[in-house]
Design a protein that fits this description.
By secondary structure, this protein is mostly helical. It contains 14 helices and five strands. The chain has two domains: about 120 residues, DNA polymerase, domain 1 (Orthogonal Bundle), CATH 1.10.150; about 180 residues, Orthogonal Bundle (hpI Integrase, Chain A). Helices cover about 55% and strands about 5% of the residues. About 5% of the residues have low confidence. InterPro entries: CB (IPR044068), DNA_brk_join_enz (IPR011010), Integrase-like_cat_sf (IPR013762), Integrase_catalytic (IPR002104), Integrase_recombinase_N (IPR010998), Integrase_SAM-like_N (IPR004107), Tyrosine_recombinase_XerCD (IPR050090).
Length: about 350
């Protein structure tokens, strides 16, 4: 294999990209693994675009390739050649703007050029398009589907109940440990670690608390560091994966459809969106829902709204008359590209 020649300009952008991904986002911005992965995916797609449309191999990329002209062409390429949705394209644009801002702060991009990048208009999205949600009847059918005479059925029931009741994200659910629960008689508050590594306390309904207590006792979850939901492998318990959650939801989705029940494709975020809509329709304010979901700017005008856990509980109890609506019823071995990707931190 011939010696790989890399220019100083390419070494510079590779170093900056690596530092951005593995130091800046993690240590300074405290971004979570899923966010880091999304940025890595963005770089991989952008480098693929540069090779396809600019005939630029990864070992020849420089800071100059991060220009407003290239980024605009990249957006068009994503749309026309890759059939990406506008929301996906806008996400890539936002990530590129963040990286270019980082390059500008470090003196690698001229402020005027960075300003041109910042001025790139995102793709239009259907702001008023209604997202799909589950009806109360559908949620009740889903949570009633697991066979609670079997251990896995009871686990699945508990998992889906908490997913709906708290409106938490899938990774937030799977990261829950016993130490994150605080019981007070017949209710429970759950400390959830959300995006930006910010904690929020979410109250659990009485019925959901009862289901959770029974599950904890049966599974003998007594160590504060134990994950609430785990899988057994080679005799050891491991944190459950998101793929496992998808399989669980798919199982009950298929079962209900076989029974003739009209049900949309089940995924964790559907439970989250459904919970938010159910709360809103029952009189809970958007400011409380914003905090409930861990959103920093669900509504820009409500970003400074604050409520502690008890205020949330009282507001929800009042809106629902004390009842939960649901429960009422080596180098030679590697290619040039692989070597350069490693330099970039990808």
């Amino acid at each position: 294999m011939s010696k790989l020649k890399i220019s100083k300009a390419t070494r510079l952008i590779a170093q900056e990209c690596n530092t951005f991904l593995n130091t800046y986002l993690i240590e300074y911005k405290r971004r979570q693994p899923n966010t880091i992965k999304s940025y890595k995916d963005m770089f991989s797609v952008y480098f693929k675009f540069l090779k396809s449309e600019r005939d630029k191999e990864i070992w020849k990329i420089t800071v100059d390739d991060f220009s407003s002209e290239n980024i605009i062409l990249f957006m068009k390429w994503l749309n026309e050649s890759n059939n990406n949705k506008n929301t996906t394209i806008n996400k890539r644009l936002s990530e590129l703007k963040t990286f270019c801002g980082y390059l500008c702060k470090n003196g690698h991009i001229d402020p005027l050029n960075y300003s041109k990048i910042q001025d790139i208009t995102p793709m239009k999205t259907e702001k008023n398009q209604l997202k799909e949600e589950l009806s109360i009847k559908q949620v009740h059918a889903i949570l009633s589907q697991p066979n609670i005479n079997k251990r896995k059925g009871r686990r699945d029931c508990c998992l889906m109940t908490i997913l709906y009741d708290t409106g938490c994200r899938c990774d937030e659910l799977l990261s829950l440990k016993l130490k994150d629960l605080r019981f007070n008689k017949d209710v429970c508050d759950i400390k959830i670690l959300g995006k930006g590594r910010k904690y929020r306390a979410t109250p659990l309904s009485k019925q959901a608390t009862k289901i959770l207590k029974t599950y904890l006792q049966e599974e003998k979850i007594i160590d504060n560091e134990q994950y609430l939901f785990s899988t057994n492998y080679n005799g050891f318990k491991h944190k459950m994966s998101a793929d496992n959650v998808d399989r669980i939801l798919s199982k009950y989705e298929n079962e209900l459809r076989t029974l003739g029940f009209e049900i949309p494709h089940l995924h964790p975020h559907l439970f989250r969106h459904t919970r938010a809509m159910h709360l809103y329709k029952n009189g809970v304010s958007l400011s409380l829902i914003s905090q409930w979901l861990g959103h920093s700017n669900l509504e820009t005008t409500l970003i400074y709204a604050y409520a502690d856990t008890e205020m949330k509980r009282k507001a929800i109890d009042k809106a629902m008359n004390g009842k939960d609506m649901l429960y009422i019823e080596e180098e030679a071995k590697y290619s040039k590209e692989a070597i350069i990707k490693a330099m970039f931190g990808l």
